Amino acid sequence: MNACRDWPCARKDRSSKVALLLLLPGFLAAASGISGSTPSDVDLSLAIVVIPPALSGPEQQAVRMLVEEVEKRTMIHLKVLTEFPAGPTPLIVVGPASQLPTWCPWCLGGGKDSNHADTKTQFAGRAEGYRIWVDKASRAAPTVLIVGNDARGVLFGVGRLLRELQMTRGKVVLPGELSIATAPKFPLRGHQLGYRPKTNSYDGWTPALWEQYIRDLAAFGTNAIELIPPRSDDAPDSPHFPLPPMEMMIRMSKLAHDYGLDVWIWYPALDADYSNPATVESAVKQWGEVFDRLPRIDAVFVPGGDPGHTEPKFLMALLEKQTRSLHRSHPTAQMWVSPQGFNRQWMEEFCAILQNQKPAWLNGVVYGPQVSVSLPQLRAAVPQHYPIRLYPDITHSLRCQYPVPAWDLAYALTEAREVINPRPIDEAAIFRACAGYMNGFIAYSEGCNDDVNKIVWSSLGWDPEKRVDDILQEYSRYFIGANRRDDFTAGLLALERNWRGPLATNESVYRTLEHFQKLEKTATPQERLNWRFQQALYRAYYDAYERSRLIYETDLERKAEEKLRAASQIGTLAALDQAEAILKTANRQRVSADWHARVFELAEALFQSIRMQLSVERYQAISVGRGANLDTIDVPLNNRVWLLNRFSRLRALVSENERLAGIEEILRWTDPGPGGFYDDLGNPLRQPHLLSVPAVGEASYEQDPEFRSSPLIGFAHRPEWRLSWCDHADALFDAPLTMRYTGLDPKAHYKLRIVYAGDNFSTRVRLLADDRLEIHPLIKKPDPVRPLEFVIPADTTGDGELVLTWYQEPGKGGSGRGCQVAEVWLIRQ
Fold first, then answer.
1. SS3 of 55, please?
2. More confidently predicted of 398 and 107
3. Cα–Cα distance, 60 to 54 (Å, whole number)
4. Measured at the alpha carbon of residue 728, what is the angle toward residues 726 and 733, in degrees to the nearest 5?
5. How far are the Cα atoms of 2, 72, 93, 132 from residue 14, in angstroms, in the given order?
6. pTM for the predicted model, two decimal places
7. pLDDT tens-digit profile of 555-578?
């Protein structure tokens, strides 16, 4: 988007460019009527924008953003002047506070502000702050003033005005007596925008799409973006790339610079051996070539792991040299590092370097996924003069830093890790749990699936006390339309509620779809082309389809089991054949076919509008696990694959009695026998003996959103597995996983049957009874998965109680996952 950069800009010169902008399907907002107005409303439909004659480049970009974003939504082109016009014309005055005394002395009044007693002094000089107020006394027509404390203050003030405006076709209204004076709480508020194949959409974005998204984020107070270099833990090319990675990185750095935003680089150290001087020399040269080509770099962040795996003493020596190289082309750029992936020994070594050597070249430490200590522990271990920046994972839903709490298995199997995931309530809880330890954040993102979450973080980074409802209302008004504000806000909150509790009993999922179907029915052509509207529809239809299918397939399995129970009467082979025919009905007769079809239609719309790659086959997503949940929409939600494999083995048996015994084993899989107990760990409804917070004390989700002191529900999937193996209880890093039994028979003997599953079979686990007697030492979980049995010593159950505690190898780094238990039977012998 190369619109005019010199103001004022004639409408004639811009008409073709505006027409092109209006045709971009992904970025159109709603344009239909708004009912009702109040006497205090200010009609800006005929307003003129007045600016000082000597604005900086970023300030000019802010004004261009104001004019163009209004025009996209209203088809009104606001004229821009550098002198105040005569006559009773409404004005929008935009400029930095530093120019007011000579350019607009009457603007210094600052207006009345009900929230702040003295707007002229309280926010004077505070970085990125701004004031917005309406002056109805100085002129015959009202004047809206946006005064920034600096260039970013001008940009963020413009963004705030855009969020407040009610914009419809042919109409621009500022509701009420607006008077705002504000500055951000946190100095760093950013998001990673990685142009690489691994993302679910970013690799298909053009410079124009990137500029639009950077604008959208800036409108909500984002002041930094984080880029990824051409070499990362990713494929070197993508079929979706419109430009080579290095060229796009240069363009994005320039875009951020044009808007006055900080540019960070996430730069992993990927070489095998940085203890080798030749490797270091090569890396310094390679990184330096990237540094030299970028017009702006404010900071470089090097993760210690995920990816990369370098001992701290060698990593820090490398980064000291890279900092010197960085300063040759960007003298003030900073260097930051994270201890991600470090085991206990490396974490201690890293903290000792900071405490004892106090490297002056290092500007701060980053806390992100796969850090083996908690954020409070890291803050206590790192010298206070090093600020801590957050790198929160807001983009993934499972096997991640902040998994969806108690997610239903059906969602995990189908929507999976990188689904469209508005989680405003959860993200606000995560933000507030971390706020006391950070100087700010740049969030980890791998596509636009987390768009709502980005806005929640940026808004709270500006004002941590802001209500989630208010953030979502601003989001909905700005991106969808003022007339949709309340309905779309309600819809976003409903999508998050769809993920609360067991899906089979969550009737609100269908109500959520009904809500969005009503919006869809009355949607304008512009709304139907709006990718944010499409994303919400996609999730609503997808959620409802999976609930319908879950109920249907669960009932098919129940009916198949009824046939198996009749095996002794009708014969085992007949029972197996009839049960198999019932299970295969799911493959022949689809339930809710219209919802299924609509999901596919919306997937196509999202590829066209925002390049979302929701399928490997259809849209060349890099893999199914990278957001391509269109390919998993019909993954079985019952045990039919496991059952059909079992049926095949049973048919191979010669003896009818053997087949009957095999069928009985299937039917009684979860039966622990008289006086026994069964837990399906990972299923919140069937794990009564799992201690929710082992050995720590009560900790709610708001206190422990990473599940460091609480067991979490984890997921892993292989097509041949039972569903009970696809979810599990997981304890991270050195935390124990604990089960407690009461009401046991003191005179009885018990044995234990366990199924270990999960996504990590390289980690060894150990099991203790009553935290003193070893049931088994550190062992690798069997692969293929199968039940293991162990005798429980009688003296551990003699008091009628038993505590089982699992530990994984202590001091491990990486993801921290591995202590993963899927099923437990305590069987009375």
1. coil
2. 398
3. 9
4. 130
5. 10, 13, 22, 28
6. 0.93
7. 999 999 999 999 999 999 999 999
